[in-house]
Design brief:
Length: 256
């Protein structure tokens, strides 16, 4: 049993064969998924997919790359959706300094507003971080995000920062990069961080794990991530699968 904690089945890359993709995931033992909506286009579809599948849930938030497009009405909308029975987290949110569409100060403001909203509605958050680690950690501390906790999505930082995040009530989620031969940091994190604090994800259709690197990613491939973590930790795939699934069910407050 596996739980892919971060999928974008609402992406255009899955328009033609979404149901087949979901079926392939089930055949590989992927029992649960969270579809992440992060703008006006992807949020409604995330909700729709979650509503039409028993063990698929949704997260709703505003992506930092598009922070400049967010209006107060969007924040009100996210607050309204947070009470939906299939919405289990707010996000993805955070900072992305790789792309320059949204200025850093705008990203930070939108990030802070979403953390504040999460605390208001008592819901965990999913963090997107690209080339902005220290600013993200500083904002999480300043906004007391540990009160709701969250997920460091597709984590690629150091063991030291991962340990600091765990102390702030955050889970560390590993994706396809942990399987890449040249990805030293995710492997170190997989070895160092206790299974009690780990989750697995694909971030599909992006970041397909080896040996599918460069192809469209899909939830069925989360098994490859779990296999790599098991190998690095010297434990069985079953132990990693069961523990990360239990972690996710507890984190998202999903009753089986």
């Amino acid at each position: 049993m596996l739980f892919d904690t971060h999928v974008h089945l609402n992406a255009r890359q899955f328009e033609e064969d979404r149901e087949e993709v979901i079926q392939r995931a089930k055949e590989e033992g992927v029992e649960y998924m969270v579809v992440v909506g992060f703008d006006r286009e992807t949020i409604p579809l995330a909700i729709e997919i979650a509503e039409s599948h028993h063990n698929i849930y949704a997260a709703v938030g505003w992506h930092p790359v598009d922070a400049i497009d967010m209006e107060e009405t969007d924040l009100d909308w996210i607050e309204e959706l947070s009470s939906h029975s299939k919405v289990v987290a707010l996000g993805e949110m955070g900072l992305d300094y790789h792309w320059d569409k949204s200025p850093a100060d705008v990203q930070k403001e939108v990030f802070r507003k979403q953390i504040q909203l999460a605390k208001k509605v008592n819901m965990p958050i999913i963090i997107h971080n690209r080339e902005a680690t220290q600013d993200i950690v500083d904002i999480l501390k300043e906004e007391k995000a540990e009160e709701v906790g969250g997920i460091m999505h597709c984590y690629s930082g150091s063991v030291e920062i991962a340990e600091a995040c765990v102390k702030m009530n955050f889970m560390i989620s590993l994706g396809g990069p942990v399987t890449f031969k040249n990805a030293k940091r995710p492997k170190e994190v997989a070895e160092a961080i206790d299974l009690d604090h780990l989750l697995v994800e694909t971030d599909c259709p992006f970041l397909a794990p080896h040996p599918n690197r460069g192809k469209r990613n899909e939830p069925a491939y989360v098994k490859l991530v779990a296999e790599q973590i098991a190998e690095l930790k010297g434990v069985s795939l079953e132990e990693v699968s069961e523990k990360t699934t239990r972690n996710a069910l507890k984190f998202f407050n999903i009753k089986e």
